[in-house]
Amino acid sequence: YMVDGHDEHDKSNEALFPEHLDAETQGAGAATALLQTMLKVTEYDAEGELQIDGIYGPITEKTVQALQADLSVETDGKFGPETRAAFLSRFGIDVNTIPAGPFLGHA
Q1: Which of 10, 52, 100, 104 is the most exposed place for a label (fewest CB within 10 A)?
Q2: Is the pTM of this model over 0.85?
Q3: Phi, psi (rounded to 5 degrees) for 100
């Protein structure tokens, strides 16, 4: 299976997340849905506004900015390499442990 242009069977962190994930470059898709799920699981959606819809809109961007402020990385609202590395490291997240769903090419 291909997810956002990557082999779905290669579930490394880099394979599921593009180099930069933001509203301009990756507005919708499996990687955004996975990010939204991870933000909810780690309780960065304090106001309960974030929807797991695969769309990198203003609420996802605002939530990523809150994450970035907490991680002491640039707060640009983009889930790029620095934010991704800090986030996954902080929580010890291994994408191989996240259940697959419709956004990962499974029903």
Answers
A1: 10
A2: no
A3: -75, 150
